[in-house]
Write a structure and sequence with these properties.
By secondary structure, the protein is of the alpha+beta class. Helices cover 40% and strands 19% of the residues. It is built from six helices and six strands. Strands 1-2-3 form a three-stranded antiparallel β-sheet. The chain has a three-stranded antiparallel β-sheet with strand order 4-5-6. The longest helix has 17 residues. The mean pLDDT is 86.
Length: 151
């Protein structure tokens, strides 16, 4: 089977086509981390990464082997790259994912798990709505049994 690629370079860009492209870009942008600014804090030897809503995380350089060997001057030269999803130091050909740095922090990883569990628990699904209706017909959610088997 042969698949022929579609050449879209000669497609007329109408307002509708432009709006579709902008919407697609926004939806792809929402699902990933994009930092707005990066600052080295020499007093604590840490990096402060700030996002669009002005929230920030502070990462101690010593916790990350990729960054721990850098001098203060090199840490000052770090910049954001790949649309704010990574830290870069071109002199050392260093590119480090912000999401990867966050995932290496046990505290941040636990926080992410907690937030995700809370978010997923509050979402409404058809199965949850059906279970809620069934429990409502019976007078509410059934009580859980204790270890002795009594109510």
């Amino acid at each position: 089977m042969t698949i022929h690629a579609k050449n879209g370079f000669d497609e007329v860009v109408t307002p509708e086509v432009l709006q579709r492209a902008v919407s697609l870009g926004r939806s792809r942008h929402r699902g990933s981390i994009h930092a707005r600014s990066l600052r080295y804090l020499p007093d604590t030897r840490a990096l402060m990464i700030t996002f669009a809503d002005q929230t920030a995380i502070v990462l101690p350089v010593e916790n990350y082997s990729e960054l721990a060997t850098l001098t203060g001057g090199e840490l000052q030269q770090l910049s954001l790259c790949f649309a704010g999803s990574a830290l870069c130091l071109n002199d050392r050909d260093l590119h480090v994912s912000i999401a990867g740095l966050m995932a290496m922090s046990p505290s941040l990883l636990e926080l992410a798990k907690t937030v995700t569990a809370s978010y997923n628990g509050s979402s409404r699904t058809l199965a949850k709505a059906a279970a809620s209706r069934e429990n409502g017909k019976k007078g509410g959610r059934p009580r859980s049994l204790t270890h002795s088997g009594s109510v």
